[in-house]
Specification:
The protein is an alpha+beta fold. Helix content is 14%, strand content 33%. The longest helix is centred in the first third of the chain and has 16 residues. The N and C termini lie far apart (47 Å).
């Protein structure tokens, strides 16, 4: 393993390029997401809170990205969040932070003081530290506008209106009971679930490792809605041992909706967002919520169709079950090729891949309008030829729920089965 001290010291010295230095106090000039780590990818579920305009904090660390933008680690110095620490995004073309003119004694972060331990922690907990570029400002502005319109946050003195995710230790017994959390164990996610997602206006799940489990668990208002495994190398799948280079398996069941249970495989070959490739996989028939358990040095994941996948608990490499995988690779333009993850099970899989963005739902056109994704989904079943279907025929963007969902007529297996039979000539069952 490489010693990361030179890299960390370099990131600290680069602070002066942005006009900021460790120990200085900065103030937000607009609304920003407060994140648990310096991964600013639009779809990363590491947002812990929304920080309002005027929030002030002390600079603890600066991480420069290849675009010239940066992540700033700041410790809040006033208000309801006094003393709390978050990562925020700095876009040099549209600055969202300004110096207050104050400066205090420099603080040494745990990352700088213990680089080797920090590297191990980052490998386990950070899906990727990749630069989002202009999308960060766009997404933040949209979220701030939506939150203001719904009166979920006010000015910097209205902490009671700020809809933050509850910390893990503050999840009440009543909340867990209401979400059915007490009915099953952390490693057994088989529990009652709804057919379709509810309206979600403030969806900011909190993801963290719990009880030293080798996976991250993501909760929304106390309910487990995702777990993920990150292979950070170096091994046969991910060669380079850098915290922003990895393959991540995300097992998602937002709002515990049966209709939209999915696996997202994210291949991040470097720190450039447009080079990252997303692969969405759905498995049928849909019978149970995904689950995970650890036995020795093996992790067993149960898919929605009750088939299993086995992973090495240390490296997060696939070692058995209905998945096989090959190494992460890039094309000539440096974009990651679609994840070399193959499904060998007896069920039906629907898969779509895309670089730089999700492979389904509406996309924003150059004129600022919206248009359905032009990607193609592949429907596979053992013993039958693969079937190609436009992604827009399966998914749609529901702006009332701020989410991309399976079309309502395909929310049940019976409804989707009729469609697949007509298009592909085989059944989900």
């Amino acid at each position: 393993m490489k010693n990361k001290l030179p890299t960390i010291l370099l990131s600290l010295s680069l602070a002066t390029l942005f006009g900021f230095d460790v120990g200085q106090e900065v103030e937000l000039t607009t609304f920003l997401n407060g994140r648990a780590n310096p991964d600013f990818l639009k779809y990363t579920k590491n947002i812990q809170t929304n920080l309002v305009k005027g929030t002030a904090g002390k600079v603890l660390e600066v991480k420069k990205f290849s675009s010239g933008n940066a992540g700033i680690k700041m410790k809040i110095t006033g208000g309801a969040k006094n003393g709390e620490t978050y990562w925020v995004y700095y876009n040099k073309a549209n600055p969202s932070l300004a110096l207050t003119g104050k400066k205090s004694k420099k603080e040494v972060t745990p990352e700088a003081a213990q680089p080797n331990e920090a590297r191990a922690l980052i490998t386990r907990n950070v899906a990727a530290s990749r630069d989002l570029g202009e999308h960060a400002v766009i997404e933040t502005a949209r979220q701030a506008k939506a939150l203001l319109e719904s009166k979920q946050i006010g000015d910097s003195t209205s902490a009671k209106n700020n809809k933050d995710c509850p910390p893990e230790e503050n999840i009440s017994k009543q909340t867990l009971s209401q979400t059915g959390e007490e009915s099953y164990k952390e490693t057994d996610f088989v529990a009652p679930f709804r057919d379709t997602p509810r309206k979600i206006d403030d969806y900011f799940p909190s993801c963290a490792q719990i009880d030293n489990n080798p996976w991250e668990t993501c909760r929304y208002k106390g309910a487990v809605e995702e777990f993920k495994l990150t292979n950070g190398g170096s091994n046969n799948i991910v060669k380079n041992n850098e915290y922003y280079i990895n393959r991540t398996f995300e097992f998602q069941f937002d709002d515990r909706a049966k209709s939209d249970m999915k696996v997202m495989v994210v291949d991040a070959p470097d720190d450039t967002t447009s080079h990252t490739t997303y692969s969405i996989m759905l498995f049928f028939p849909r019978s149970i919520l995904p689950s995970i358990k650890k036995e020795g040095n093996e992790l067993t994941v149960t898919l929605p169709n009750k088939e299993i996948v086995k992973y090495d608990a240390t490296t997060k490499e696939v070692i058995g079950g209905v998945f096989t995988e090959g190494k992460m690779a890039q094309s000539g333009n440096k974009k990651a090729l679609p994840a070399a993850v193959k499904y060998t099970g007896a069920g039906v899989m629907i898969r779509a891949d895309k670089s730089g963005d999700l492979p389904y739902g509406d996309i924003e056109t150059k004129g600022g309008g919206r248009a359905p994704s032009i990607t193609t989904a592949t429907v596979s079943k053992k013993g039958f030829p693969d079937c190609k279907i436009p992604s827009k025929d399966i998914w749609y963007t529901d702006y009332t729920k701020n989410n991309v969902l399976i079309k309502t007529e395909y929310a049940t297996d019976a409804g989707l089965d009729s469609f697949i039979k007509k298009k592909c000539g085989f059944s989900l069952f």
